[in-house]
Specification:
Blueprint (H helix, E strand, L loop, with lengths): L71 E5 L11 H9 L4 E8 L5 E3 L40 H8 L8 E6 L5 H12 L5 H4 L4 E5 L5 H7 L5 E5 L2 H8 L5 E5 H4 L2 H13 L2 E5 L4 H10 L3 E4 L2 H13 L1 H5 L3 H9 L5 H19 L21
Parallel strand pairs: 1-2, 1-9, 2-4, 4-5, 5-6, 6-7, 7-8, 8-9
Antiparallel strand pairs: 2-3
């Protein structure tokens, strides 16, 4: 989830195991790129911002009772422990592994295409070079392939939506991590155009999409352009989350180690009392998955949805036994430096420095926005 280079329908009550998907992992052509991608520069106009009539001020999660429920699992960039991150193969594999959702990252190319990729530049995970926003899809990015096998192309936003629209994936959600390098109005305008181009988007897509935002400058544009999508603030800092996002977002996607702290416990109670959802990232260890189950939060984001599925089956079979703390539960956190305050605070400081360098200061005027979710039909 970190940006440093290195729906929502009501949850159904009861614990139900999802059947194995028969969806095959796609076979994609090898790269025909013969070298680093050339750089291009294009000046684009931001699409118009549309107005929507909101429903009465209401938190869409107020109807959820306070009772414990098993968390969902959202595949981090798909099933990125098994396949190259943010690729069609990774998304399909996450669905086959029983993920309740897919978490992915979005950027805009120089020719106004939406692509799913984590970093602003290509070199860490692909055979390409350069910044995505300076490169066109046509003729350049379409030929880039991942360096990790099986070598995959960069997917367009439409491709993940088509995976979600397959009958076997009709309940899978999509958490869209909106990278700070993007212009909010242009990004949300393009997302709106793509989503609303599908027949039946009001019922088939909109209820399953979530906007993940890192910077407060995304709040007002998200509310005005995509008011029918809930907003999740993504953060490593609870103080920032409380100051800039708590009153204007429906949920929070927070680094696991922060949620596991004493302040994290207070934050979890605050969210429960206010009807806010919490998602923890990136949770790959079994004991941490069980801890998320003990917390009863909304969801876990994991590179390993197949591992979570096994944990979930244990919980469904015998919740008390599966979630009973062991000696390892108490000792393990002290054996890993990532759980110490100075470690995750350092990462949070670095993240804030990066976000403000790319997106500007957090201390901007934030207008009062509605937490009501507009009906998709209001946009027609």
């Amino acid at each position: 989830m970190s940006m440093i280079p290195n729906d929502i329908p009501e949850p159904k009550k009861g614990l139900i195991s999802r059947p194995e998907s028969t969806l095959p992992t796609p076979v994609l052509s090898p790269s025909n790129s013969i070298g680093p991608s050339p750089a291009f520069s294009t000046v684009l106009q931001s699409p118009a911002v549309s107005e929507f009539e909101l429903e009465q001020e209401q938190n869409p999660f107020d109807k959820i009772d306070d009772g414990w429920r098993i968390p969902e699992c959202w595949g981090h960039r798909g099933a990125s422990a098994s396949f190259p991150e943010n690729t069609k193969a990774s998304f399909v594999e996450a669905c086959k592994a029983g993920a309740d959702g897919i978490e992915t990252d979005i950027h805009i190319t120089a020719d106004n295409q939406l692509v799913l990729f984590h970093d602003p530049e290509l070199h860490r995970t692909t055979d390409g070079q350069g910044l995505i926003h300076k490169l066109p899809w046509k003729g350049v990015l379409e030929h880039v392939r991942t360096t990790k096998a099986p070598h995959q192309p960069i997917p367009k936003f439409t491709e993940v939506l088509e995976i979600l629209l397959k009958p076997e994936n009709i309940n899978v959600k999509l958490n869209i991590d909106c990278k700070v390098e993007n212009d909010p109005a242009k990004l949300f305008g393009l997302i709106k155009d793509v989503v609303e181009s599908y027949n039946g988007w009001e019922t088939k897509l909109a209820p399953r999409l979530i906007l993940g935002i890192w910077h407060p400058k995304f709040i007002a544009p998200a509310c005005s352009i995509l008011p029918y999508l809930p907003r999740y603030a993504i953060s490593m800092s609870l103080s920032q989350t409380r100051k800039y996002f708590f009153e204007n977002c429906h949920g929070f996607s927070i680094m696991y180690e922060v949620l596991a702290s004493s302040d994290g416990a207070k934050f979890r109670k605050e969210c429960q009392s206010k009807g806010k959802w919490i998602c923890a990232w990136t949770v790959n260890e079994k004991e941490e998955m069980r801890q998320c189950g003990r917390w009863g939060i909304r969801s876990v984001i994991s590179d390993k949805p197949d591992v979570w599925r096994r944990i979930r089956k244990e919980i469904e079979s015998d919740r008390a036994k599966a979630l009973k703390p062991t000696l390892q539960s108490y000792i393990l956190p002290f054996l890993q430096t990532k759980n110490y305050w100075f470690q995750y605070q350092r990462l949070a400081n670095e993240e804030t420095e990066y976000l403000e360098r790319e997106g500007g200061t957090f201390d901007i005027p934030i207008p009062v926005v509605s937490l009501g979710i507009a009906k998709p039909s209001d946009s027609m």
